[in-house]
Amino acid sequence: MLGGVTPPDSPTADVPPDLLLTDVTVGDRPGRAVHVAGGRITWIGAAADAPRAGQVMAGEGALLTPAFVDAHVHATATGLALTGLDLHSRSSLADAVAAVAEAVRTAPPGILLGTGWDETGWPEGRGLTRADLDAVVGDRPAYLARVDVHSATVSTALLDLVPGIRDLPGASPDGQLRLDAHHAARQAAYGAVTAQQRAAAQAATLAEAARLGIGSLHEMAGPEVSSAEDLRALLVLARERPGPRVAGYWGELAERGGLELVRELGLAGAGGDLFCDGAFGSHTAALSAAYRDRPGTAGALRFATAQLVEHVRACTAAGVQAGFHCIGDAAVGQVLDAVGAVVAELGLPAVRACRHRLEHVEMAGAEAVERMRAWGMVASVQPAFDATWGGPSGMYAERLGADRAAACNPFADLADAGVALALGSDAPVTPMDPWGGVHAAVDHRTAGAGLRPFDAFDAATHGGWHAIGAETAAGPLAPGAPADLALWDTDATLSAVLDRRLRPGCRQLVVAGTPVRSL
């Protein structure tokens, strides 16, 4: 299951005949060296005993680790946020509107795209509306995604571009769109991105990932979040230049042709952001009991269970990993019911071999965790969600109440049960920040729910390789492992970095044995 990722021993541009990283700290052991050839680690030991190599990189005592894997990214949207209108840091409605007004003056013509606004801490007590946008954008189409990217506020001009959007589920006269109306608006907005804009955004994301020591990204594409053209272009870009690898996922049901693109592009899986529900912030995550702050609302399931059964069946029969976006407990339960039906039909070994994965899985009780363990599933989780919205006064508590909020993101329960974990950011929902994600997984806002430091680091590195079925038995720093390595700007040991919550900068990234200096 290495679809979408360049195999570790595949040739890439400017690969040296072999490479020796010398005088590095590996884990907690200083004075080590690592030899790389053919895109894989071939030797590791004391620097004094290192073999000769065609190229030598002096570590000067710096910490060497496996490169990070961000297991959930939207590359084009992330790049557009990096290079355009990013509202994550705006602390009030007035501040956000001022940023939009400035973007109108400086952004190139076309649909104005922005992301990241979050009204939960704003003093005005409300989010952006269509009237707010119209006042500053005039007759320009504008699409501004809320931080969870499961809702957005749009201008009147954008509504006018999408026939029938006002009659779709989730439409609202104030321009705050959810559900089907939001998906239609998003498709229109991102569908207007030119090939040149897309290439620049994707390149910006890959460059930022390299700067952060991320060697691989799992791209969560799909008809409701991007396009086949967008995914195809990203995979080509990642293959043609030194830098982070990209594993592609396509979130579309098999009954709608989802497996066809997986086969055509050699993708890692059929799923990822296959939306079985929405998000807490937009009140669209599917719950078994109503939201605390909207007693008449419990979110909604996007599919009938029979559709999910058919998808899991088709993927399992084809030996393809299926993946599902599921956040609320009702959505998690529905997906697991579907997987269970296929276990009964096709057998446990066939299901376990596929490592079907759940994205986010923020509400998972003991029964759900046990079913994931028994069926060999992967939990693709985002620790920054808990860091941003967890805690007794956070958005989770506001939406769900204190008890349900405290049970969200049960990382320790998943790890202790033996469920495979892969950490990601869901960028641009939260920024790519691998060290921050590791520390957030450890420093969970619910006591006892966090991971042990080395378990968190493993989930952020080796966990991503396991999630695509490409891990090595000896681990990520052993002969035979992919030569995806990061050299950090610190002489501290890995234990010290984890214990002190350090966030060292990446001095050098090596992917498939190729030093990455620029993109």
UniProtKB/TrEMBL annotation:
Pfam families: Amidohydro_3. InterPro entries: Amidohydro_3, Metal-dep_hydrolase_composite, Metal_Hydrolase. One of its GO terms (molecular function) is hydrolase activity, acting on carbon-nitrogen (but not peptide) bonds. Transmembrane segments: none annotated. Residues 58-516 form the Amidohydrolase domain. This is Amidohydrolase 3 domain-containing protein. It comes from Geodermatophilus normandii.
